[in-house]
Amino acid sequence: MQCKALRDSAKEIQSFDVAYFMASVDTLEVNTAFAEEHQAGFPILADPSKEMTGAYGVLMDVGFANRWTYYIGADGIILKIDKETKPATAGKDLTRTMEELGFPKS
């Protein structure tokens, strides 16, 4: 559902001068198939070693990652962490928050 919400909001998201992606603890092959099936127009990073998800603090004890959204400025500083990401509205929420944070437009 989150992938679909981001896909459906692609035009609005891409009006900002940002890079965006999802990350999963699944393998590259699983993520590639998922991205193709859901017609994702953005990367889905594979982290089967769970190194990145662990470093960002999103890895749960059961081995899955929380659905958190990190807003990172061009200088690499984390501006906001949304720990209440809602899969169904993720695209609209992303664009609204980027607007509120003053992310530059393309």
CATH class designation: Alpha Beta
**First-last Cα distance:** 27 Å
Radius of gyration: 14 Å
CATH topology: Glutaredoxin
How many runs of DSSP E, i.e. beta strands? Answer: 4
* SS class: alpha+beta
Give the SSE string: HHEHEHEEH
Query: What is the helix fraction of residues, given as a range?
Result: 25-40%
* CATH A-level architecture: 3-Layer(aba) Sandwich
Low-confidence stretches: none
For the sheet with most strands, the description reads: 2 strands, parallel
Describe this protein's structure.
Helix 1 (2-8) crosses helix 5. The chain has a single domain (2-100), classed as Glutaredoxin (3-Layer(aba) Sandwich), CATH 3.40.30.10. The strands form two sheets. Strands 1-2 form a two-stranded parallel ribbon. It has helices at 2-8, 10-13, 28-37, 51-55, 90-101; strands spanning 22-24, 44-46, 69-72, 78-82. By secondary structure, it is of the alpha+beta class. It starts with a helix and ends in a 5-residue tail after the last helix.
